Amino acid sequence: MTTGASPRLAAAATAVAPGGSVGRVRTRTETFDTPAAPFRLECGARLNPVTVAYETYGRLAPGRRNAVLVCHALSGDAHAAGFHRGVPGERPGWWDLMIGPGKPLDTRRYFVICSNFLGGCAGTTGPASIDPATGRPYGPDFPAYTIGDQVELQARLLDRLGIPRLLAVIGGSMGGMQALEWAVRHPARVAGAVALATAPRLSPQAIAFHEVARQAIFRDPGWRGGRYEAADPPRAGLALARMIGHITYLSEEAMVRKFARRGGGTAGTGGFEVERYLHHQGRRFVDRFDANTFVHITRAMDRFDLAAGRGSLEAAFRRAACRFLVVSFSSDWLFPAALSEEMVRAMRLAGREVSYCEIRTHQGHDAFLLPGHRMGDLVAGFLDRLDREAT
Amino acid sequence: MTTGASPRLAAAATAVAPGGSVGRVRTRTETFDTPAAPFRLECGARLNPVTVAYETYGRLAPGRRNAVLVCHALSGDAHAAGFHRGVPGERPGWWDLMIGPGKPLDTRRYFVICSNFLGGCAGTTGPASIDPATGRPYGPDFPAYTIGDQVELQARLLDRLGIPRLLAVIGGSMGGMQALEWAVRHPARVAGAVALATAPRLSPQAIAFHEVARQAIFRDPGWRGGRYEAADPPRAGLALARMIGHITYLSEEAMVRKFARRGGGTAGTGGFEVERYLHHQGRRFVDRFDANTFVHITRAMDRFDLAAGRGSLEAAFRRAACRFLVVSFSSDWLFPAALSEEMVRAMRLAGREVSYCEIRTHQGHDAFLLPGHRMGDLVAGFLDRLDREAT
């Protein structure tokens, strides 16, 4: 267990608190290669070997009670905080505003872990990985994993890292689905669960957006039924899928504030700023994401239903034993507050202790990735209470 | 001027009132072929000849004061009411619930006209029409027309039909944009304007959805820069464009009511009912719509801004002289009620008389095409008042 940061940088980061950086970090991997006991998925498929990419920040305390697992969203990765290269202008990890000395996930107190999910394309085994049975990428044949399978792989990682129980599991969007699944699936291993901008299941509208995004990929001739070469992926389709997705991550008001109708004349062929922004987002995405991975992960999200096989949402939460913090955002129309409220009612009926806050913001679904609201304080307070109870 | 219905059927329809059918109708065309005075567009381009497809229902009264122009939406056509073939199971025109004897647009009182818009692909000159200069379809070279140009072609049609002034112009969505433009552009020719589920300009979010839909077409290899053969269009891209659009025409609640999460298992590759519904809508669309037409019309909608070149929205409405009825729908997130409210405030500041109603419904943007709410009564009452004032 290391902080991931070099001693010099870690010391420097600590000196910057409150709100400092974890400094320079690197992504590590753990590989589970046990042919006799392969990793089994809910669908019955088996995977061996399985590699997990992860980063850690802070130090595991002697009693091992200060671990916080961060679950990233669809397009995230294990690099949640700090810097990989430490060069000027480098963008920090995707949740750097939340993780670091003096930040809500205070690395002076907590040992923070973030791993790329099962089925990902940023170091963890997924559709772009080589299938040892064929010597070629799994591609479309990668098994139809579930959010529960992702949790099981995270649990294996924690076993390997020697962490019997999490102080908290925390995630936004798909990461929030994992946090909820953790709470219900492994009640003895979770003291607190934080579900941000998420839901116990997708709405049919969200499924519809996923499907049109997938169709953008399938209709790209470069898709080749998912059997494209890594160097020649269905770029146009994947970029369009991301453009569609990106609309749903913002709100109407956020778009009005960000773009208004700038850039469009009264004649010509468009050229509105909002169009250029989406094209930019689409192009950026194809450089770091894989099309088969996108198809699989959106389907896993579509199928996720915390209540399925457990009787009801209330019955599901009866299995849990942790405290919950649920945060929704008023302008998030992809994971609307109403679904969080339904979930919170079920938690309460199940006898769970839950804090719920709907944060009023124009930022839409992406709000959990952005500064400018109370989420950080809510998470910090929730963790502080769990930590004081644990020690 | 004819009713469009045969005397026998018209008589039969009258007997069915209230709420009867206009009976059997057919789409007619008028062609303007005056090489010396071609149809001029705002962008400076000229078109000759120009054909307009239209239908009429009811009878023009001797004083010619009972004409109501219906403006259709993006995917509509001139066939607004009644039946073309009169065979069992045939679907009536797209606004049959509103037009007919005893219906809100009561064909016993009003002479109703509906024409396919300039740039359309259902009989009126548009990108799929033959450019006489080349002998081939205009395709991507069709001029970048405006909502104002569409109004001018409708005005030519009314001239040809001998209608100096409309009792009312009425439309939903893009048709509502035309109705607003009519009121501001030709104040002497309009006694009343009805704007349903529309806006004086699109939001950046709506523009964003249009752009991803266009990109679905552009990224289909069958697009060929818009120079596809009519028999070999970019079907996959156009279908996907429609699937994207269709999500925006419904509301989240409408989708929950209509589909919930039915059809999806906890494993497998999806197959949710909402996905099948979208695929069905996509397939249907390609049989009746043209890709170049879609690209052009969505761009015309994107560029539409009633205030542009007129100082402000208020200044624009100072040019108008008619009464207005504005109706928005609470769950319409493509043309949100807030934009209607902004428009109504501008109308009032400009001294216009306006009735405004936000109808509470889960039906989303498509509500103006559907029964089950008060819109019909509001329109009927508005027309009745205009009619009594006129006679």
UniProtKB/TrEMBL annotation, chains A, B:
GO terms for molecular function: homoserine O-acetyltransferase activity. Pathway: Amino-acid biosynthesis; L-methionine biosynthesis via de novo pathway; O-acetyl-L-homoserine from L-homoserine: step 1/1. Its EC number is 2.3.1.31. It is found in: Cytoplasm. Keywords: Acyltransferase, Amino-acid biosynthesis, Cytoplasm, Methionine biosynthesis, Transferase. Residues 67-369 form the AB hydrolase-1 domain. The active site is at residues 173, 332, 365. InterPro entries: AB_hydrolase_1, AB_hydrolase_fold, HAT_MetX-like. It comes from the Bacteria. One of its GO terms (biological process) is methionine biosynthetic process. GO terms for cellular component: cytoplasm. It is an enzyme of class 2 (transferase). Substrate binds at residues 242, 366. It catalyses: L-homoserine + acetyl-CoA = O-acetyl-L-homoserine + CoA. Belongs to the AB hydrolase superfamily. MetX family. Transfers an acetyl group from acetyl-CoA to L-homoserine, forming acetyl-L-homoserine. Homodimer. This is Homoserine O-acetyltransferase. It comes from Dissulfurirhabdus thermomarina. The lineage of its organism: Bacteria, Deltaproteobacteria, Dissulfurirhabdaceae, Dissulfurirhabdus.
